[in-house]
């Protein structure tokens, strides 16, 4: 090659490289084009799914749960859990939520079982390693569904499943996620309280108390007063139940303290129903405490709490609660009569029991009717020791006989035996008086 040609070896190499690059580009262009087209279609499809999921969320907000389920089913028919795990999990979770809400309206057991199945499907893709936050959320929802199902059937079995699910959620919902941690701890406490009705009362109530105390590390009276009050109410209930098993004085005092904390928020002006609920609990706790110490003081507190509750629960507005409170009030007056003003307080107690009987009739509420009649018999017999012995003993006998119309030996053998014993004592005392008069 002559020097005059202007081409050097380096120039020739460069030209060849350019030609090769152009050839490669021409050969590869259709593949790149197709890839880009596929990518565009995939992005459009994902956008459509995202839009459909937003529609599902809107339907859930509108409480159109059946439409939300249908929409999710439509999405799930177009995707696979392997290719779209997050979208799959979102849809299954939404189906679970929708069925759980439907269970509160109709066919509780069937809808809850469907909801549980959906949550379990979601957990196949939302694992603790790949989607830890979503995993915890699903486990919390699953626990709620099992808790609700426990109210329909297999209570112990389903509550244990609920507790297990909440504990799984808490592996992620640690104190690093305070609101979620508190939510699940509260649910866990409720489940343990329910389980305590079935077995190992003391241990399960202690677990419940521990859970509620964890919640109160998050919900303070300043940061979230409503949830603080609600948790204090739950805590008070747990302590009250525990007082029936062990350390009665200690746990009753703790229950009272929790109620008083709740009343800092639940005032009669702002939250009348919650206020009355707490006052009922407070009355019960003071009544139990009066059996151990300071009978006069604590009985008076119990009476005051009942009277506060009656400011909200009138016979016209809340007849069932009205009757229950009147029964509690009668019990409190009976306790106080053992300390002072016996005749006066027994008459108030009898009056309260009679008020309860305006609601708790033998036809509508036979068990409650029998309980009140038994209490009435005890009060009349006690009053017979102060005045009008014969008439009051006769009233007592009549009340016991009314109770025994419900408390039969076959249906309620223990209560039957107790009422029969009371009746025999009243008959014996009346007979002794009549015998003395004859003599």
What does this entry look like structurally?
The protein is mostly helical and 439 residues long. The protein has a domain at 363-439. 75% of the residues lie in helices and 0% in strands. The chain has 17 helices and no strands. The protein has helices at residues 9-61, 65-76, 85-103, 108-122, 132-150, 155-169, 178-195, 201-215, 225-243, 248-262, 272-290, 295-309, 319-337, 342-356, 366-384, 389-403, 413-438. Helix 14 (342-356) packs antiparallel against helix 15 (366-384) and helix 15 runs antiparallel to helix 16. The longest helix is centred in the first third of the chain and has 53 residues, at 9-61. It starts with 8 loop residues before the first helix and ends with a helix. The model has no long low-confidence stretch (mean pLDDT 92).
Q: How many helical elements?
A: 17
Order of helices and strands: HHHHHHHHHHHHHHHHH
Structural class, by secondary structure, is mainly alpha
Percent helix range: over 70%
Helix and strand topology:
Layout: H1 9-61, H2 65-76, H3 85-103, H4 108-122, H5 132-150, H6 155-169, H7 178-195, H8 201-215, H9 225-243, H10 248-262, H11 272-290, H12 295-309, H13 319-337, H14 342-356, H15 366-384, H16 389-403, H17 413-438
Key attributes of the depicted protein:
439 residues; mainly alpha; 17 helices; 75% helix
């Amino acid at each position: 090659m002559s020097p005059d040609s202007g081409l050097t070896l380096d120039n020739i190499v460069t030209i060849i490289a350019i030609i090769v690059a152009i050839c490669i580009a021409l050969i590869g262009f259709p593949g790149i084009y197709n890839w880009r087209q596929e990518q565009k279609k995939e992005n459009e499809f994902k956008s459509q799914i995202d839009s459909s999921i937003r529609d599902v969320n809107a339907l859930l907000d509108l409480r159109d749960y059946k439409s939300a389920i249908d929409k999710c089913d439509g999405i799930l028919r177009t995707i696979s859990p392997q290719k779209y795990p997050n979208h799959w999990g979102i849809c299954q979770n939404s189906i679970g939520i929708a069925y759980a809400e439907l269970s509160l309206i109709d066919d509780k057991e069937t809808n809850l079982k469907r909801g549980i199945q959906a949550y379990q499907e979601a957990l196949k893709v939302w694992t603790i390693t790949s989607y830890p936050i979503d995993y915890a959320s699903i486990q919390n929802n699953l626990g709620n569904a099992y808790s609700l199902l426990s109210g329909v059937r297999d209570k112990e079995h389903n509550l244990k499943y609920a507790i297990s699910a909440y504990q799984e959620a808490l592996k992620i919902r640690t104190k690093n996620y305070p609101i979620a941690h508190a939510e699940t701890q509260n649910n866990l406490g409720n489940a343990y309280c329910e389980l305590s009705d079935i077995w190992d009362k003391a241990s399960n109530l202690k677990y419940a108390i521990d859970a509620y105390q964890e919640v109160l590390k998050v919900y303070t009276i300043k940061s979230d007063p409503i949830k603080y009050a609600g948790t204090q109410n739950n805590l008070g209930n747990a302590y009250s139940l525990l007082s029936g098993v062990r350390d009665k004085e200690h746990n009753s005092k703790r229950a009272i303290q929790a109620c008083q904390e709740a009343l800092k928020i639940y005032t009669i002006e702002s939250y009348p129903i919650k206020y009355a609920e707490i006052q009922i609990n407070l009355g019960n706790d003071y009544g139990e405490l009066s059996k151990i110490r300071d009978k006069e003081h604590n009985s008076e507190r119990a009476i005051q709490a009942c009277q506060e509750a009656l400011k909200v629960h009138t016979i016209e507005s809340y007849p069932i609660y009205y009757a229950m409170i009147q029964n509690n009030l009668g019990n409190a007056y009976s306790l106080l009569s053992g300390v002072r003003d016996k005749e006066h307080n027994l008459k108030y107690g009898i009056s309260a029991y009679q008020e309860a009987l305006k609601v708790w009739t033998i036809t509508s509420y036979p068990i409650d009717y029998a309980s009140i009649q038994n209490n009435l018999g005890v009060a009349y017999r006690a009053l017979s020791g102060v005045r009008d012995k014969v008439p009051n003993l006769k009233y007592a006998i009549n009340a016991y006989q009314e109770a025994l119309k419900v408390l039969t030996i076959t249906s309620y053998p223990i209560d039957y035996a107790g009422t029969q014993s009371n009746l025999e004592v009243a008959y014996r005392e009346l007979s002794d008086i009549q015998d003395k008069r004859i003599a």
